[in-house]
Specification:
alpha/beta; 6 strands; binds zinc ion; four-stranded parallel β-sheet; 200 residues; globular; Dna Topoisomerase Vi A Subunit, Chain: A, domain 2; Helicase, Ruva Protein, domain 3
């Protein structure tokens, strides 16, 4: 093949990233090569620094604090007993942007179409249960299943209701209004605020 092995390897690597196909990966690889040594070194240093990022012990969101908790879980102004279960970090950002939610989060990870939790997701769920037992005396006030309105989200909700019912006074889901098959990540602030307000 006409490409140097090093470039090929980068293209393969970039193709594994979300939303990046082989064609885009190739374009990105040439962009990186074309940036020149100095700016490439900076980009590499930035990527390297991600190794210092930690995952919050409670919610699994990213942080770089000296303790075990992220900025949200460490914020005493937020309600500990209202927990929004979400699939992805980007969903957390979208909900935070509405400024309509003052509880906390729990990132379960993307739910598969078949509605089966992976081993690491079961481990996360166990941690949530332990947290509720230990820090909330065994009952959360409310667990909001803020899952994507997709087949995976629906299946996941069924599992989570079963698993978490004994541990919450009420379990709610985001109100309809989010387009079916759409994703929280891409919902506009207004739609998402509405879905939060109409949770049931
Ligand atoms: Zn946290």
């Amino acid at each position: 093949m006409i490409l140097p092995d090093k470039v090929k390897r980068i293209i393969e690597r970039l193709s594994e990233w979300p939303s990046i196909g082989p064609r885009q990966a190739t374009r990105l690889a040439f962009y990186l090569v074309g940036r020149g040594n100095g700016s490439l070194r900076e980009a590499v240093a930035d990527l390297n620094s991600l190794q210092d990022i930690k995952l919050c012990e409670n919610c699994f969101f990213v942080h770089e604090n000296s303790g075990a908790l992220c900025n949200i879980c460490g914020d005493s102004n937020r309600k500990t007993s209202i927990i929004a279960v979400i699939e992805k970090e980007t969903d957390l950002i979208s909900i935070e942007n509405t400024r309509k939610f003052n509880g906390r989060y729990f990132i379960i990870g993307p739910l598969s179409r078949l509605g089966v939790l992976g081993v690491w997701q079961k481990n996360r769920l166990d941690k949530l249960k332990t947290f509720i037992q230990r820090d909330l005396d065994g009952k959360a006030d409310e667990i909001i299943l803020a899952l994507n309105p997709t087949t995976g989200g629906d299946f996941g909700a069924t599992i989570l209701v079963k698993e978490l019912s004994p541990l919450a006074n009420r379990i709610t889901r985001l109100g309809r209004g989010l387009p079916m098959g759409g994703e929280i990540e891409f919902a506009d602030d207004e739609t998402l605020s509405e879905a939060l307000a109409k949770r049931n």
